[in-house]
Amino acid sequence: MVYWRAVCAHLVLLVVGGLAAARNIGRLYGGWEGITERASREEASPAGHSYSTCGNETEALFRIDRVRLEPEQISRGSTATFRIRAALEAGRHPDNLESALVSMRALYHSTEVFREEDGICDVADACPLPRDGKEFLMVYVKEFPLYTPPGSYDVELRGRIDDTALFCVRVRFRVAFW
């Protein structure tokens, strides 16, 4: 009985200490409004997720403007949506663009755990893709099964036509236990 009281007392101290730390962080960034305003300016990289281009960007035919991962908190058994806003680089328009493939590779602690390949018209919002420099959206939806181990993941999304690179994006995020 005494043991459980001590455990409960420690939990209360942790919660109260966490709230005090959160208040101090809020003051540091100008209140909660400052924190949300700051987060909305960093739209390309929501809290907990980051992305970068991979491969040789100068050879890629697509210009990546934004990558979003929704929801912000991914957990086992949930569905993740990768939204990639891109445009074709000016003057670089292959004839067979609609036959391009998009591959998704999921890495868990640098070990490949999943691979899938789709046609670009299956993930793009418009097909044929606009060739005049206008943006288009590619949406990739993946379900994380209940047996997904929690931890850090990298998802690499690559577009290609034969040996020609269209784009390469690497998204880093965490999968929560629940």
Description:
- By secondary structure, the chain is α+β, with helices and mostly antiparallel strands.
- The protein has two domains: 2-38; 44-176, Sandwich (Immunoglobulin-like), CATH 2.60.40.
- Helix content is 24%, strand content 42%.
- The chain has three helices and nine strands; from the N terminus they run H-H-E-E-E-E-E-E-H-E-E-E.
- It has helices spanning 2-28, 31-41, 120-123, and strands at residues 50-53, 62-70, 74-75, 79-88, 101-108, 111-119, 136-143, 151-161, 164-176.
- Strands 1, 3, 5, 6, 8 and 9 form a six-stranded mixed sheet that branches. A three-stranded antiparallel sheet has the order 2-4-7, with no helix packed on it.
- Strand 8 and strand 9 (164-176) form a beta hairpin.
- The longest helix is centred in the first third of the chain and has 27 residues, at 2-28.
List keywords for this structure.
single chain, 178 residues, Immunoglobulin-like, 3-stranded antiparallel sheet, 3 helices, 9 strands, 42% strand
Lay out the secondary structure.
Layout: H1 2-28, H2 31-41, E1 50-53, E2 62-70, E3 74-75, E4 79-88, E5 101-108, E6 111-119, H3 120-123, E7 136-143, E8 151-161, E9 164-176
Parallel strand pairs: 3-9
Antiparallel strand pairs: 1-9, 2-4, 4-7, 5-6, 5-8, 8-9
